[in-house]
Design a protein that fits this description.
The complex is a heterodimer of chains A (about 60) and B (about 375). By secondary structure, chain A is mainly β. Chain A has one domain. Chain A is built from no helices and four strands. Chain A has a four-stranded antiparallel β-sheet, with no helix packed on it. Chain A is elongated. Chain B has two domains: about 160 residues, no CATH class; about 160 residues, Peptidyl-tRNA hydrolase (Rossmann fold), CATH 3.40.50. In chain B, strand 1 and strand 2 form a beta hairpin. Chain B has a seven-stranded mixed β-sheet with strand order 1-2-3-7-4-6-5. In chain B, helix 2 packs parallel to helix 6, helix 4 crosses helix 5 and helix 8 packs parallel to helix 9. Chain B contains twelve helices and seven strands. Chain B is of the alpha/beta class. The chains are: A mainly beta (about 60), B alpha/beta (about 375). Chains A and B meet through strand 1 and strand 4 of A and helix 6, helix 7 and helix 11 of B.
Amino acid sequence: MKEAERKITRCYTCLECKLCKNMAKRKFESNDSVFQNIGKCSECDGDLIVTMIFGETIE
Amino acid sequence: MDFTNFDLDEFFGMGDESNPIMMLIWIIPIIIFVFYGQRIQLLISSNEIKKDISQLEKFKNNSRQKLIDYIKNNLEPKDNPVKKIDSFLEYFTVMPIDLDPNGIIPKINHLVHSREDFTRLQVKSMFNEISAFEISKVHNLLEIVTSLQLFHKVTRHLYLTAKKQKNFPLILPLQMMIPFIMEEANALKDAVESLKNGQPIGDGIGPMVVGEMMLNTSKQKAAFETVWSESKFEGRELLLVKAEGPNATVGRPGEAVENIIPQKKPDLIIMVDASLKLEGEDSATIAKGFGAAIGGIGTERFKIEEVATTNNIPILAIVIKQTIKEAITLMSEDIAKQAQSVRNQIYDMIKENSKSGQTVMVIGVGNTLGILQ
């Protein structure tokens, strides 16, 4: 198998609570956008914002 | 080593006592290489190129099929989109005549905008209802398939011409260029997935840096698919400009700058963009410099340079280095993590190069797919 075919890229979304600065990383979901307000923080009820969407390559 | 008793006849196998078969082993290859050397080289080189051409054809067909499947499965086209997509792939662009280069930029600008508007209309006409976000995604996917088709056609043309003419020198430029063509084709092929999923690409680092600075500000339209807003930083007024996210667009930053500068007269322009790294350089490194950091065909850069020169505004640039593949495929973690560092460096640049009470324009250049503001 060629080198490129052995690589799998997984996409992740990083979330941060604007209030308690709690950070979380989960798999990318359709319609996620950077700086999107995704809901409320489970810890403090603050706004949960997408800070990054990025790919990780696994060989 | 003693060369005094060296016998040339013996060496070439032509001496009285030498074997005629040994002589033939020397002579035949020499004759073959003298008369057919170029053809042998042509055969070897063309075999390698042939493999790459088949690969290019595969890339083109796969990306075309992925586009068709995406339209059929995720959007609701009026009719079967295959015919329309295939006809679109054959469109070409005739660049304006450059015999008299005076005033060629507005002509190129008009041509590029007309092509974009036409493509957008064509995409829109395929559906009863489609969002601007989906139009921008399909538009970008179409551009990828068209580019792959062009790579395949041009490479095949050069290869077949060299073979037809049995002309080895003709295949040399292609042999030199093919690794670069394949690198770009590979990147384009891989870009399809990110575009389909609406995920940010490496080129989006500029809009990502400025997008965060624009949060909680009132956004206004600056030009087509381009927004701007005002903010404050240590006594300075900031004018923030980026393409309108989360659409897959680079916007029209040149036009935006032309529209904003007469109203706001900034004292400094800072441009943030992704930049192609040189071999040996590390990805995701940050570099600062002077001048308009913006790629593309050159019309947007011309507009920014023109309006900055007329108004005597210095332009500073900050770029994030990456490969072509990183720039057009899903943003890597290393690049995404540099956004905050770039933002801090922009604030330092503002403090160092402007005084309190002055106005600074910050432009985030790049494709803003999957990045809001």
